[in-house]
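Researcher: We plan to redesign the surface later, but first we want a full-length starting point. C-alpha cells attached.
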C-alpha cells in the first residue's frame, strides 16, 4: 500500500471533529443506486458524509475504501482499482457471499478524491464496473467536475450530489447543532456560519466545542486553528492552502500585496476567484477574522521563517505607503526589534492613533535594552505596552516638552476629554516643578488649546491668561479663535499679516449661515499659509500637522465679521471642505480636528440645503461619533423628522467617544427642538435647561446658532422659568443675528411621483401612462413643482429634488455591492 494512497475493506477512521455529516447531502442518497457521485469543495465533508451514509445501510453491505491523497496516473489507478475489485468480488469477480439470513451482500467500491486521478478516461472504467453486476456499487467523491457525473446519470442510473458552493446557511447550521444535541437560535447559527465562511468542517469544530454562545470563545477559536493547521500540514503541496495562509497575513490585500505575498504576476483576480471557489474567502471577497487568524497561525506553525519574512516585507510595504498602524502591526508580528524602534522613533506622534499596534511594537522593541529615547519613554508611560508598564522616570525639560507635543497630537484621537485634561494638568505641573518659565508658558498655552478644543471655554480663558511668550503664539492664536467662535465674540488676537478688516461693532453676517459652522473649516483645511503638506506623511493622517495648519490660519470662518470682498462664499466653503474631506485617509480613528471638519461640512451643506450630500457625508465616515450623530439629527430636523432626531441623540453608554461639553450642549438643544415639535413641551424644557446650564458654565453660545430659534422661543414661552437662564451674554441677539434655514418645499404626492419617473429617464408620455393621467396633467404638475423648487427646467428640478431628498438620490455604481475579487474594501475605515 502506498504511503499516499490508502485502501482496504473498512471504512476510513474519521476524527471526532468530522463525525457529523454535511446536511443536505444524505437525503440525496435515498436509494441504493448502482453509482453515487458526490462533488463538493474541500472541507465540505464528503468523506464524512459518504462514510455516515454507508454505515446506515445495514449489515448486508460491505465496502472497500480507496482513498487518494496525491496525484495518480492512470496505470497506477487501474492497478489499485483491480486490487479493490478482487478484494470485493474474488479473483473471478463472480463471488457473491450471502448474509446469515440468506440475503445476497451488496458490495461497495468507494473511490475518495477521484479528482486526483490525472486521466479522465478512468471514469468510463468505473461506470463499466458499476453496470457489470447489480450487486456491485460504486461511490465516488471529487472536488472538481468530471465526466463521471454525466456518465453515472445517463449510463448507470446513478445518483449525483453536487455542492458547488462551500457555504452552509444558518438553517443548515441549526440542523447540525440539533444532531449534536445543541439548541441554537437562528441568529447565533447565522453568526457561526458567517464567522467561518460556512465551512462545514469548521462549523463542526465550533459545535463540538460545546459552545453555542456568541461571540466565539477562545476554545472555539482554538479548535478552528487546530483544524486549519492539520489541513495545512496535510496539504503541503496544495497551492490553494499555501496561498491562503500567506494572503491571511494582510487584512485587506490588493493586487500588489498579493504579488508580494504569493509571488504571482498575473494579477489578483484569478487567484482570489480560486480561493473563493475553494471556500477560503467570504461573500465579500475577504477572510473573516477567525479564519484569517487560523490561517496565519497555521503558517507560523508550519513555516515560521516564511511567517516572519512576509510580515517584515508587509511592514516595509505599508511604511512606504504611509500606513503607520499596519506597518507597526506587521513589524511587531515579524519580531523585528530594529524596525519597531525605528517606526516608533520616526513617527511617534502618528502612532497615537494606533494604540494596539503601538503597544505590541513597544513590547518587541523593549526586548533589547532601551537607549533612553525620550519619545519612546513617553510612549511607554502612556500606552503601557503588553509587557507591562515601566517605572515612571523623573520629569525633565525635554520629557515635558515632548509630553506637550503629545497632548496636541492626541486631542480627540483615542483619549477622552477627561484623560487629555488630566495629561495637560500633569504636564503643566511638571513644567512648574522644573521652574522653566518658557516651558511653563508653553504648557499654559497647550492647556488653553486643549480646553478650548473641547468647548470648556471658561477654563481655556484662565489658561490663556497665563501665557504670553512669543514661542507659544501659534497655540494661543488657535485657542483664541476657538474661544471667539464658541462665545460669538470677535477675534481678540488677529494675525499681524491679516488684511481682513473686522469691525467689532458689526453683528454676524445674517445672510451667510455657513459663517456659523465653526473655526475648524476652510481656514484649517485650505491650501493657505500654514497648511499641512500631506505629500510626504509617513503615518497617514497627521493630526499634529493639521492642528498647526489651524494655528497659522489667517481667516476664522466661525467668527462674527464684517462683509468683505475677501470673505469666502458659502459655495466656496462647501467646495473647499469637500475637497479636504476627500483628502483625509480613511482609518480607524480620527482626531478632533477631523471630526470638526466633518461637522462643519455637514453644517455648511445643511445651510446650502444639499441634504442628500450631507446625509452621504455623515453616514460614510464615523457615523457613531456623538458630534456627527448630532449633525445627522440636525439634518433630520431640517427634513421634518423629529422622531429620527430623537433616536440619533439618545444617550448610548459605552462603545463611543466621550462627548465634549460642546457636544453635550448641541445634543441637548437638538433634542429640545425635536421634543417641542412632538408636543412634548415638558421634556423639551428640561433638555433646554440642561443645555443652558452647561452652556453658562462653559460660556458656550455657538451651539445655539445651529438650531432653529423659533423652536427655542416656543419652549421658553411654555416654560417661563427659562427666561432668566435664556437671556444671558449675547444669546438674546440670536433671533435677529441668524437667518433660519429656508423651509423645505412641500411637493404633492403626484408631483413627487412625476419627478421620480422623469429622474429614472422615462419620457413624459410614458410617465403619464404609468400614472394613469394625461400628458397635460403631468406638465401641470411639473410646472407646479418647478415653482415650489425655484427652478426653470426638468434637469434642475430633478437635481434640486434629489438634494432635498424629495425623490430617491441618484444610484452610485457599485455603491450597494462589494467587489468580490478586487481584494480591496474601498469603504474601510
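Model: Full-length starting sequence:
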Amino acid at each position: 500500500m502506498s504511503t499516499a494512497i490508502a485502501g482496504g475493506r473498512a471504512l476510513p477512521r474519521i476524527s471526532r471533529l468530522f463525525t457529523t455529516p454535511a446536511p443536505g447531502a444524505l437525503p440525496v442518497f435515498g436509494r441504493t443506486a448502482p453509482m453515487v457521485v458526490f462533488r463538493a469543495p474541500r472541507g465540505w465533508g464528503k468523506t464524512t458524509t459518504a462514510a455516515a451514509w454507508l454505515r446506515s445501510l445495514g449489515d448486508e453491505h460491505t465496502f472497500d475504501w480507496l482513498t487518494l491523497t496525491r496525484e495518480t496516473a492512470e496505470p497506477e489507478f487501474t492497478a489499485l482499482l483491480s486490487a479493490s475489485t478482487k478484494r470485493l468480488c474474488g479473483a473471478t469477480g463472480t463471488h457473491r457471499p450471502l448474509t446469515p439470513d440468506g440475503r445476497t451482500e451488496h458490495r461497495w467500491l468507494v473511490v475518495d478524491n477521484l479528482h486526483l486521478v490525472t486521466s479522465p478516461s478512468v471514469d468510463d472504467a468505473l461506470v463499466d464496473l458499476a453496470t457489470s453486476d447489480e450487486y456491485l456499487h460504486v461511490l465516488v467523491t471529487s472536488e472538481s467536475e468530471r465526466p463521471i457525473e454525466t456518465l453515472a446519470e445517463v449510463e448507470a442510473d446513478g445518483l449525483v450530489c453536487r455542492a458547488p458552493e462551500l457555504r452552509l446557511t444558518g438553517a443548515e447550521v441549526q440542523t447540525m447543532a440539533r444532531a449534536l444535541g445543541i439548541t441554537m437560535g437562528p441568529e447565533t447559527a447565522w453568526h457561526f456560519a458567517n464567522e467561518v465562511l460556512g465551512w462545514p468542517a469548521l462549523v463542526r469544530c465550533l459545535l463540538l466545542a460545546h459552545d453555542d454562545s456568541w461571540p466565539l470563545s477562545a476554545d472555539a477559536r482554538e479548535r478552528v486553528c487546530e483544524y486549519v493547521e492539520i489541513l495545512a500540514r496535510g496539504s503541503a503541496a496544495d497551492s490553494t492552502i499555501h496561498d491562503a495562509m500567506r494572503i491571511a497575513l494582510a487584512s485587506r490585500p490588493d493586487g500588489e500585496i498579493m504579488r508580494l505575498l504569493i509571488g504571482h504576476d498575473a494579477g489578483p483576480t484569478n487567484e482570489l476567484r480560486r480561493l473563493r471557489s475553494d471556500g477560503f474567502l467570504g461573500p465579500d471577497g475577504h477572510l473573516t477574522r477567525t479564519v484569517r487568524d487560523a490561517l496565519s497561525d497555521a503558517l507560523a506553525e508550519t513555516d515560521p521563517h516564511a511567517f516572519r519574512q512576509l510580515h517584515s516585507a508587509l511592514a516595509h510595504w505599508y511604511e512606504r505607503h504611509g500606513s503607520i498602524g499596519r506597518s507597526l502591526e506587521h513589524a511587531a508580528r515579524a519580531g523585528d526589534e530594529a524596525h519597531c524602534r525605528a517606526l516608533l522613533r520616526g513617527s511617534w506622534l502618528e502612532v497615537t492613533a494606533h494604540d494596539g499596534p503601538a503597544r505590541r511594537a513597544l513590547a518587541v522593541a523593549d526586548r533589547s535594552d532601551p537607549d533612553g529615547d525620550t519619545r519612546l519613554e513617553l510612549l511607554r508611560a502612556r500606552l503601557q505596552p503588553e509587557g507591562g508598564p515601566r517605572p515612571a522616570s523623573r520629569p525633565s525639560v525635554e520629557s515635558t516638552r515632548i509630553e506637550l507635543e503629545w497632548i496636541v497630537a492626541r486631542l480627540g484621537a483615542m483619549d477622552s476629554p477627561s484623560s487629555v485634561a488630566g495629561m495637560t494638568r500633569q504636564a503643566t505641573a511638571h513644567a512648574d516643578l522644573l521652574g522653566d518659565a518658557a516651558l511653563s508658558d508653553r504648557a499654559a498655552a497647550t492647556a488653553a488649546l486643549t480646553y478650548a478644543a473641547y468647548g470648556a471655554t471658561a477654563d481655556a480663558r484662565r489658561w490663556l491668561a497665563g501665557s504670553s511668550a512669543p514661542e507659544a503664539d501659534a497655540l494661543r492664536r488657535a485657542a483664541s479663535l476657538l474661544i471667539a467662535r464658541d462665545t460669538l465674540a470677535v477675534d481678540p488676537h488677529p494675525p499681524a499679516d491679516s488684511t481682513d478688516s473686522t469691525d467689532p461693532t458689526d453683528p454676524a453676517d445674517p445672510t451667510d449661515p455657513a459663517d456659523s459652522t465653526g473655526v475648524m473649516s476652510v481656514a484649517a483645511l485650505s491650501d493657505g499659509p500654514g497648511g499641512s503638506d500631506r505629500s510626504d506623511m509617513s503615518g497617514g493622517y497627521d493630526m499634529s500637522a493639521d492642528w498647526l495648519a489651524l494655528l497659522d490660519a489667517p481667516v476664522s470662518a466661525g467668527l462674527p465679521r464684517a462683509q468683505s470682498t475677501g470673505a469666502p462664499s458659502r459655495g466656496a466653503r462647501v467646495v473647499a471642505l469637500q475637497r479636504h474631506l476627500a483628502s483625509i485617509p480613511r482609518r480607524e480613528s480620527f482626531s478632533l480636528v477631523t471630526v470638526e471638519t466633518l461637522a462643519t461640512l455637514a453644517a455648511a451643506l445643511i445651510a446650502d440645503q444639499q441634504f442628500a450630500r450631507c446625509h452621504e457625508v455623515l453616514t460614510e465616515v464615523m457615523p457613531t461619533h456623538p458630534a456627527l450623530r448630532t449633525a445627522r439629527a440636525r439634518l433630520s430636523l431640517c427634513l421634518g423628522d423629529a422622531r429620527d432626531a430623537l433616536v440619533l441623540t439618545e444617550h448610548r453608554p459605552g462603545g463611543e467617544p466621550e462627548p465634549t461639553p460642546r457636544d453635550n450642549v448641541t445634543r441637548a438643544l437638538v433634542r429640545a427642538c425635536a421634543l417641542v415639535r412632538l408636543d412634548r413641551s415638558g421634556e423639551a424644557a428640561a433638555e433646554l435647561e440642561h443645555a443652558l446650564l452647561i452652556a453658562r458654565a462653559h460660556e458656550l453660545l455657538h451651539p445655539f446658532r445651529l438650531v432653529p430659534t423659533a423652536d427655542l422661543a416656543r419652549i421658553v414661552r411654555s416654560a417661563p422659568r427659562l427666561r432668566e437662564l435664556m437671556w444671558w451674554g449675547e444669546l438674546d441677539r440670536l433671533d435677529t443675528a441668524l437667518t433660519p434655514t429656508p423651509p423645505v418645499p412641500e411637493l404633492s404626492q403626484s408631483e413627487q411621483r412625476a419627478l421620480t419617473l422623469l429622474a429614472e429617464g422615462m419620457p413624459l408620455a410614458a410617465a403619464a401612462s404609468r400614472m394613469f393621467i394625461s400628458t397635460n396633467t403631468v406638465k401641470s404638475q411639473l410646472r407646479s413643482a418647478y415653482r415650489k423648487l425655484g427652478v426653470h427646467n426638468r434637469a434642475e428640478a430633478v437635481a434640486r429634488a434629489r438634494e432635498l431628498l424629495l425623490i430617491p438620490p441618484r444610484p452610485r455604481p457599485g455603491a450597494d455591492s462589494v467587489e468580490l475579487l478586487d481584494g480591496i474594501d474601498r469603504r474601510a475605515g
